[in-house]
Amino acid sequence: MDAITRVRERGIVVLRIAIGWVFLFAGIEKVLALGGKPFSAAGYLQFATMGSWPGTTLEQGQYLNPTHPFWASLGQNAGLISVINVLVVFGEVAIGTALILGLFTRFAAAMGTLMMTFFFIASWDFANGIVNSDAIYAILLVSLGIMGAGKVFGLDAILEKTDFVKKAPVLHYVLG
After folding, report:
1. Hey, what long-range contacts does 62-70 have (CB within 8 A, 24 or more apart)?
2. What DSSP state is assigned to residue 111?
């Protein structure tokens, strides 16, 4: 193995663990209520999904995001909010843990990309241009999945050598 390959592998591991930590910490922060109050997605869905555009100020009742009524209706439904709260927290913790361990990395990257895509559409935050943090996280997660980041110093590399995975090649789509 040459020096460039070692540096590339270390970079992949650092990126995988860093993105994993972002997700894991976001989930833990919600579980432990580090913000001072229990987590609820209701406020975000009702009030942070109105959208933004450079140089635009919204008046009361206005919104730019064409999907805002959908997100706001979710935020007003107490039954759905309890499900959404669990999905968000569980998703963040599970995605973060999987990425850090390099376990089911492609599946974790796909689910993280899906989550970030929903956040991107919901927030509709174009005040600083079309590329925001949600888009960057989605792009990074897609990249981690494509490159099989879990095969580099991850548990996926170990799992792929087992007889179980060798007999079920479809698992290669979620590992790596």
Report:
1. 64/124, 65/122, 65/123, 65/124, 67/121, 67/122, 67/124, 68/124
2. H
- From first CA to last CA, the distance across the chain in angstroms is 20
Q: Is 53 helix (H, G, I), strand (E, B) or coil?
A: coil
**CA gap 90, 20 in Å, rounded:** 13
Q: What are 127's strand-pairing partners?
A: 129
Q: What is the mean pLDDT of each run of 10 residues along the chain (176 residues)?
A: 87 97 97 90 90 77 84 94 96 98 97 96 84 94 95 93 89 84
Say what the alpha-carbon torsion angle 120, 141, 92, 122 is, to the nearest 10 degrees. 10
Length of the chain: 176
E strands, 72-127, where? Answer: none
Q: How many angstroms separate the CA atoms of 140 and 142, rounded?
A: 5
Query: Residue 74 in contact with residue 45, Cβ under 8 Å?
Result: yes
pLDDT at 63: 81
Q: Tell the residue number behind the tokens 């100020």, with chain if given.
A: 57
